[in-house]
Amino acid sequence: xxxxxxxxxxxxxxxxxxxxxxxxxxxxxxxxxxxxxxxxxxxxxxxxxxxxxxxxxxxxxxxxxxxxxxxxxxxxxxxxxxxxxxxxxxxxxxxxxxxxxxxxxxxxxxxxxxxxxxxxxxxxxxxxxxxxxxxxxxxxxxxxxxxxxxxxxxxxxxxxxxxxxxxxxxxxxxxxxxxxxxxxxxxxxxxxxxxxxxxxxxxxxxxxxxxxxxxxxxxxxxxxxxxxxxxxxxxxxxxxxxxxxxxxxxxxxxxxxxxxxxxxxxxxxxxxxxxxxxxxxxxxxxxxxxxxxxxxxx
Length: 298
Description:
The protein is built from 11 helices and 8 strands. The chain has 298 residues and is α/β, with parallel strands linked by helices. The protein has one domain (3-150, 210-292): Rossmann fold (3-Layer(aba) Sandwich). It has an 8-stranded mixed beta sheet, with helices on both faces. α2 (74-83) runs parallel beside α8. The chain is globular.
């Protein structure tokens, strides 16, 4: 996959579809590499007449890692945020928004449809709020507004995200930890495919395992905090897409997010957790394409 200079970083990306078609930029979530956007979903989007762009966020996969930066203590970051003290982190979501704009600039794309999942949805919301001239439509998937009063995630999910394996954990242990993380996020309506999860985790580990990057991204989310003040500035046609059984962001988060964005459409997927299961590729793509077609350019 190619890399490109953007916002002072090297960002790894790939493209599915014709460069002459309208671009759709996919932004993945916390610690997730571009490969977590399933190729069949990208191919289905491309078949509808779109140029589909995936990329590794900073500190993930094969994009620039911030290894020289101090990895913050999350408890300290959270305490500072709650008490109104200065929050010191290597970067915030605003910096990751600048990465998105830098990537579009480097690819010479003036305007694009933006689709973000989880943390990627947070980034996508801020792109839409602060760079309205750069997007045709916004799809925010399985994300939230940053409101601290929203229902909390399931305890098992918090534990999997916040507690990482010891540094001396071998490949087998890291693989099993990754499988269990996918399991707690999984869609309860569908049978959990251990073999598929194992393949995904092993590919991620081989491609670029950066646990400190995950911690820095959590710190970025925490330091950025409540984004509701920005959401009212979003003008682009918006779809809020969410799983009814999401254990990380309970479905109330989707209802509130849609209410914060003028004219947003809300689509709740029954049986969907905090993942993109194969069984749902087709309805998810159909929902996304429906919103893309609401944009200025289809």
